Queue: 2 jobs
Job 1
Amino acid sequence: MALRNLLRGVIPEDLLTLVPSSFDIIGSRQGAVAIIEIPDELEPYKVEIAEAIRKLNKNIGAVIRRRGARSGPYRLYNYEILIEGPTEVIHKEHGYFIKVDPTKVYFSPRDQSDRAELADMVQDGERVLYLFAGVGPYAVAIAKRRKVRWIYAVELNPWGLKYMVDNVRINKLTSVVPIRADVADFCSAFAAKADRVLMTLPLGAKDYLDAALRCVEDGGYLHFYHTGPEEDPFREAEELVKSLCTGCSIVGRKIVRDYAPHIYKIRIDVKVRRT
Ligand SMILES: C[S@@+](CC[C@H](N)C(=O)[O-])C[C@H]1O[C@@H](n2cnc3c(N)ncnc32)[C@H](O)[C@@H]1O
């Protein structure tokens, strides 16, 4: 049953349309946390909304309300706890597990199909550099599907590193190496070359693009995440890449999902050529 229907008679009829039609659930049958955005007009009914969410899904313990946009270097929301409960959960996705506390480190279940698509592009034997790795979900998705040589997964947030180490262990991965570092420092000292580099920081990866391009083997691939307006979502990302690497070609373009009103989160796949 839809959340809105459950709240009929609890919330005045003229406000019912403001009840969100969806919310995020992170976790599994063993325990989950629900994350919802509630407009200010529904402030007096926020606890009733949270209780209705729990009625819809018995696995949910904590219900938390997202406030404002992601901010800060760790790309976190401000959260208001509506119903207390554990916020550290184990999320199940395409045959693997992601342990995470979304109040401490970035994670979005909405990126699941992008992870699957990207993991399918990787070939056995590749060397993968995963920048802005959070709790490491792309590394897990790749390493579960492919016998890669290695994946170095670089993240600044200490909570990201902690959960990444847990995720390597619970998914029994041997090829993933979690690293706590600033991408700028790591890339400038990176002695090896990667066959593939992932830059999963839509708001800010551009500042590290030059450094990341240097880490790619000639003929390798770079996956660059960025944001773009709905009328021309890829133009800026492509121009940024072309301005730094004239020999590079764009071999894939993907709208990952909505980012903000009329703005998409996008990914471009770049074949790196040094001419
Ligand atoms: C948008 S999140 C993506 C996390 C992860 N790849 C995922 O998809 O769940 C970007 C991550 O980059 C990290 N980050 C931001 N600036 C960084 C930097 N300079 N060096 C390393 N990590 C950074 C943030 O802490 C955050 O966890």
Job 2
Amino acid sequence: MDEIKNPYRPGAGTPPVSLAGRDDQIKKATTLLKIVQAGGSDRSLMLYGLRGVGKTVLLNHAEEIAASLHFHVQHLELSEKDDFRREIAKTVRKALLAISLVDNLKEKAKRALGILKAFTLAIPDGPEFKLDIDAVLGTGDSGDLNSDIVDLLTALGDAAKEAGRPVCLFIDEVQYLEEAAFAGLLASVHRINQKQFPVVFICAGLPQIAALSADAKSYAERLFEFLPIGRLIDTEAETALLGPAKTQGVNFTDEAKDFLLAETEGYPYFIQEFGKHTWNAAKASPISLEDATNARDAAIVSLDDSFFKSRIDRSTDAEKEFMKAMAQIGTGPYKMGDVAKQKGVLVNSLGPVRATLIGKGFVYAPSHGLIEFTVPQFDKFIRRHFKI
Ligand SMILES: Nc1ncnc2c1ncn2[C@@H]1O[C@H](COP(=O)(O)OP(=O)(O)OP(=O)(O)O)[C@@H](O)[C@H]1O
Ligand SMILES: [Mg+2]
């Protein structure tokens, strides 16, 4: 069928035509924003889930809701290499300038800009901001990331309250935050809530962010509500698959639908990719099982090139060998002992590679002694890619 009218949209953060199965999370975000807008406070949100389940799409959706409620919004996407100090400094600067009238700076906004200046002065080769304001020395410039972030974000909160403008910060790929920065973020939310400042955070990341130690977890859970974002089930997956075609009067036979739902296992990225290729392969409505099976190979090639391959390319040889051993065992989660046996080494010797794989976001530990890929069906990809 007409490729130009293809309603499926595989891509990082690309909004789907049918945003299926996320009503609860959208409601939670909307309620939180309305509470803060009304002068109250509640826990910020932390969305977590595997690659391609739709975390970024949800963040972007919540951002639109926040903007429609007259929040000032800022979006921050972290990467492995980013220095959080620089990123948060740039974000806070933009927020401060947006919520204050620059030619008529109020007291708290001036102070916040002064703290921002002190904060950036403490960053080696820090970003050069042309801020015609004196640094508030002694605040936000201790060099201790945790407490400096608290100073900076609390000053932003103070300025937001003074300006009567709520602020929502969206932070994506939050698993890349180093420990001190994560601790600083938590402590900032704590302080901001105590002071009832109108600042709220909606963050998203891989499942490793939920794997905190018991103490750290109970503290984090008082400040953030952790919302798992999973694969789509039953009617949700059906809506995601059938909904986009339906907007153009196109249907699927039951056999085609069942085949595609089984292949994609309800993972949003896969539904978009298989939907796209099946649409292109079909001649007319209803889309048949034959269309879907004909499109399968093209969908897999496309997934390998876009979704999977870019990820494996970021791993070292030792990391690849570790992941190959996982995939050789079958589907996960995997016992570390089994991975060691597969490689013919002692479990302890795998510690360093395991740690870098978690740090890079390839794998996470669902529970003690277990390891699993953060990318759905990554084991199948590795077996295809390395011809295991
Ligand atoms: N609820 C949904 N219903 C249908 N399709 C969805 C849904 N959520 C996301 N998608 C589609 O899935 C794909 C991946 O979405 P997104 O980039 O938001 O995932 P992600 O969880 O942020 O992935 P990553 O961890 O790789 O950043 C996109 O093509 C998007 O259109
Ligand atoms: Mg994302």
